[in-house]
Structures are given as C-alpha cells and as structure tokens.
C-alpha cells in the first residue's frame, strides 16, 4: 500500500513539473540540456529496438515514446518562447550551432538554400518516415488483433491434447496478451509522434512569422534582417525538434518490421 502511495506521489510530482516547465521560462542552458537528453533518449530507444530478440520483449516502448513526445513538446514550446522574446540576443549554443550548419542570417543565398534543404528534410520526415511508421503500426495492430482468436484456440487445444502443461498454457496466454497490448499501444503512441511532427511544422512557421512581426514592429529591424535572424533560429530549433521524432519513428518501424518477418 505504501509503495502505491509513493508511486502515485511520484506521478503527481512529474505532472506538476511538466506543467511548471510549460508555464515558466526555462533558462537556455537547461532548455538545451533537455533537448540533448531527449535526443540521447531517442537514440537509446532505437538501439534497444535493434537489440531485442522479440518485439514483445520491448513492451515498454509505447510508454517511452510518450515520455519522449512530452519532452519534445516542452522543449518546443519553451524554445519558441525564448527565441521570440530574445531574438538576436538568444544565446542557445546548440540551436545556433545546428542552424549554422544549414543557414545563417549573414548570407541571403546560403539562408535560402539552407531553408530549402530544411524544407526537404521536413517533407521526408512528414511524408515518408512518420506516415510510413503510422501505417505500419496500424497494419500490425490490425493483423495482431485478427489473429488473436486463432492463437488462443491453438494454445487451448495444445493444453487439451497434453502438449503443454498448465504453467506453459498460462505463460503462452500471457505472452499473447502482451503482444496484443504492445501493438495496440504502439498504434496509439505513433499517433502522438505524428501529431508532434505536424505541430513542429506549425511551430517553425510560427517562429518565422512571429519573429518577423516582432522584429519589424517592436525592435525596428529591417524586414530581411528580421527574416534572416528568425529563419535561422527556426531552422536550428526545428532540426533539434524533428531528430527525436525521426529516431522514434525508425524504432517503431524496426519493431513492426521485425514482427512481420517473424510471422510464418
């Protein structure tokens, strides 16, 4: 009973921490640390998906995906707030470094080319990676649910024929239920990732348009100067937002593809 109370308190504290991080400004150093940890967390999920022998062994994958999505949403909203408020004074080393790989406000041609490459990466993420992972998860969940009655009958018939004992029968039923729960939860979790990717695209547009309005009307900057500054920061933050989603979608595709190859 005491363990349940402790677990409930931990959940309450976690939810409260998420709400606080959403409402209050986060220091840039803490923000970028959270972004780096989220990328590492997504890499761990992908490596684990490659390493497990059976997809059902990684039954906590949907929960980890939801945690990664929550981290992405917090960092996305917090970074947007910091970028729009600080503008040229934004001191995020990680975001500025990533944006400098594709675009920087000092060169119009480089900025336009970098933004075009970034738009192509976003299109690949939305139209290929995420859409493919969503479709694979839906098909896997559908086939798993359709095959469940037949598998249950097979397990029951093996028990009646004496092929397996009561313990083996219970273990087989538990493994089957875990497999069904995994693919059902995976189908729902991948929708969270898909929604995060779509919101990320909207957020990038918001940074660019909002930054131009703030830079021109409030800070008195020239149109192209404001466009260069906020487009560059939008590219950097957008890449850091999309990378965890890309890794998580790849992990989902690996698990589902492995399950399909294991089916007779």
Features:
264 residues
What does this structure look like?
- The structure is a single chain.
- The protein is an all-alpha fold.
- The protein has one domain.
- It is elongated.
Give the total of beta strands: 0
Question: Helical proportion?
Answer: over 70%
Number of DSSP helical runs: 7
Structure classification: mainly alpha
Instruction: List the uncertain runs.
Output: none
The profile of the biggest β sheet is: none
Overall geometry: elongated
Using the CA coordinates, give the radius of gyration: 23 Å
Beta-strand content = under 5%
Task: Give the distance, in angstroms, between the N- and C-terminal Cα atoms.
Answer: 45 Å
Q: Provide the domain count.
A: 1
Outline the secondary-structure elements.
Layout: H1 2-23, H2 28-51, H3 61-86, H4 93-102, H5 108-160, H6 166-217, H7 223-262
Kindly summarize this structure in a few lines.
Helices cover 86% and strands 0% of the residues. By secondary structure, the chain is an all-alpha fold. α2 runs antiparallel to α3.
């Amino acid at each position: 009973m005491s363990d349940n109370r402790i677990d409930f308190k931990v959940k309450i504290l976690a939810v409260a921490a998420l709400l606080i991080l959403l409402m209050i400004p986060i220091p840039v150093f803490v923000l970028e640390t959270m972004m780096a940890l989220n990328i590492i967390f997504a890499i761990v999920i992908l490596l684990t998906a490659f390493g497990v022998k059976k997809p059902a062994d990684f039954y906590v994958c949907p929960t980890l995906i939801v945690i990664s999505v929550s981290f992405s949403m917090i960092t996305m909203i917090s970074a947007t707030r910091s970028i729009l408020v600080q503008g040229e004074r934004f001191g995020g080393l990680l975001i500025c470094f990533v944006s400098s790989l594709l675009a920087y406000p000092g060169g119009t041609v480089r900025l336009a080319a970098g933004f075009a490459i970034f738009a192509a990466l976003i299109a690949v993420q939305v139209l290929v990676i995420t859409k493919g992972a969503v479709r694979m998860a839906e098909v896997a969940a559908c086939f798993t649910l359709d095959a469940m009655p037949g598998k249950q009958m097979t397990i029951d018939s093996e028990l009646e024929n004496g092929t397996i004992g009561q313990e083996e029968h219970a273990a087989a039923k538990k493994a089957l239920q875990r497999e069904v729960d995994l693919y059902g939860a995976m189908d729902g979790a991948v929708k969270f990732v898909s929604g995060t990717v779509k919101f990320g695209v909207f957020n990038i547009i918001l940074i660019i348009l909002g930054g131009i309005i703030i830079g021109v009307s409030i800070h008195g900057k020239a149109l192209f100067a404001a466009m260069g500054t906020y487009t560059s920061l939008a590219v950097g933050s957008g890449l850091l937002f999309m990378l965890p989603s890309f890794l998580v979608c790849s992990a989902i595709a690996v698990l589902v593809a492995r399950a399909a190859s294991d089916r007779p």
